[in-house]
Each structure stands twice: as structure tokens, then as C-alpha cells.
Write a structure and sequence with these properties.
Number of strands: 16
Radius of gyration: 22 Å
Order of helices and strands: EEEHEEHEHEEEEEHEEEEE
Structural class: alpha/beta
Largest sheet: 10 strands, mixed
Oligomer: single chain
Length: about 375
Amino acid sequence: MKHKLWAKSLYTTALLGFFLGQAALSTAQELIHPYESTESTVDSTLSTTSASVSTTGTGAAILLLVDKDTTGTTNLTNALSAAGFNVTRRPPPEYTWDTTNPPLTDFDCVIHLNGNTYQVPLPVTAQTALVDFVRNGGGFIGSQWNGYERATNRQVDMNDLVLQLWPGPRNCGSCSQAWLTVAGQESHPVLDGIPSEFSFSADGHSDGQQVQFDVDPSTVLMRSNYGGPAVLVREFAEGRVVNFAHADNYFGIGRALQDLNIQKLYTNAATWACISRIIEGVGFEAPLDQGPVLVNKHRVLPMKAELLEEGLPVTDLDIVAPPVIEVVFSSATPPNDPIDVTDDALTAGLGTDGNQFVFTDESKW
């Protein structure tokens, strides 16, 4: 009997003592601001299938759902790759992604660009797949006009991933916009290296009101100079969500994505939503719950693993071969200095009660 050990985040994590080191909407009619009632017409000749284009990186795997090819989209892809992420750029339009082209199986995070294609929602299957993906430990980074599509009941099957609505105090197209850090949020990882206030040229923008969730509420990290939410984060079930108030590629130019601060926000968001959740010692006691620790000057993590066969848990104890653990090196290491626990570490090969690997009838070690 052959078994496959899935190396995935959270309870399926297998991380052991390793060293971290449109052609979208091309209408003859000019695009209309989503906050106005007039509708644009979707070009019925749009292709519904397209191949994925991968950009190699060394970090977490990101699926970039592109609404329109612009200079900004290219700049964002390059910025993420330069930060060490393995980016799979899914060509536009984003609403033709149906969860199979490509599937979410090999990704840690999804970035969804929706500034140019707000007239057509993602397929319901795609929306529910994204929610399940994040619920089970994945990351999602979105922006406007997701709030618009939710508020107008066009795209309502991924509401757990849409952290703000529409309209807001500042609704505009091709406008100069300023964002300011909320007091007390300066140390959040998504704002690492971001000025407390900065301005940029927005393709589109709507700082719609924060969605109120009864469970797993979101947090506003930055606001626009008009007072509405600009950057929001949420820890949803086992995953993480980041939302931005700008609508990239709205006029098909991608101005915001060419701004260095916006690019930095995306790379920070990817680190927090796509990597940090993986390298945290979820379910372990301190100090391992804080991330990697040092043992003999090496960064190490605890291990949790689940044995699956064709996606199903293996609960019998008749295992004829030891598990094989695949460790992927990532250059996107956490910013904090790990705690040195060398003096408390057990000698290799030895164990004590509670520190031994035991295969349980729940298919877990």
C-alpha cells in the first residue's frame, strides 16, 4: 500500500527541523464608474479559456487572477517574484477561472484583481472554492470592485472574503488618493516598511464601509484621507484575508500597481497571508507557537503531519514504510528573531513522553 504525506499548512503541515533560510472588457464604450447606475456592455467575444503563465520564485505559491494585462499587472508580478514568491499568473479575464484552469491544489495564496472586470462575477463554483480554500488555511488578497459586486448582489458567494462594501466616502476613478495608518496598527506585518501616510494615483477607489462579521471580525489597518477603510485584514477560520480599497486596472492602465508602496503592501500581504500562517507553530506551546526557534544556530520548526491516501485519512497502523517529508526552502523568512532553545532541545534520536512521534488512529503523527 502506498501512502502520500501531504506537506500543507496547519493540521496537514509537515515541517520538521528544516533550515529556513482583457483582453478583458474591450468595449467601444468608455468604462463607467461602478458607483454610477449606468452599465457597460461586456464583449461577448471574450475567450473563456486560457493557459496559466508561471513566474518562478522560491517562496510560497501564489495564484494571480488577472483582470487585464497592464504595465501595473506586470510590475506587481515582478515585485512578488523579486520578493521570493512563486507566482502563477492566470491571464485575463479573471471571471473565466473555473477552479480547474488552474486548480488551487498547489497554491498557498490567491491574489484577485477585479478593477477592470466588475460587470461579470466569478462563477459560483470559483467563489465557493476560494472560501473553502481560505477556510482550510489558504490566503486571499482582494480589492475593489469586489465590494461593489457584493453590494449590488452580483457576486455574493464569497462574502467571507470581502471585507468592505461600496460605496464609501471616497469613490473615484483616475484620482489621487492618500492612505493613513490607523493608530495602534503600526506594527502589523502588512504595514512593514509602509509610511504612516502616503499618496498614490488610483485607477479606481472606493473606501466602502467595513463588513461586520459575528465570528472572526476584520481589522482596519489604514484609512483613506476621507475616513473610509483602505486596508483591512481578517483571520478567517484557518486562513487569512487582506482587502484593499483601490480598484487596480480600472481604466486599463494599472497606475496603482506601479506605485512602490502599493507593491510593498501586496508583498507584505502575501507574506502575512501566504507564508506566516505556514511557519507559525499553530497548536504548539510556547515558544514554538511563535514560529521558528533556534537549535544550535539553526532555525527549526515543530512537526505535525497527517497521512492520506488519495485524499482520505489512513487510520490503520499497518504502515510498511516511514513517511517522506518534503521540505520547501523559502527566502521569505519572518522578520522576528527566533528564540534560542538549544539548551532545552533533546539529543537527536531521544525522546520523552509527549515528545515522541506517535501514529494515532486519527491518521496523524
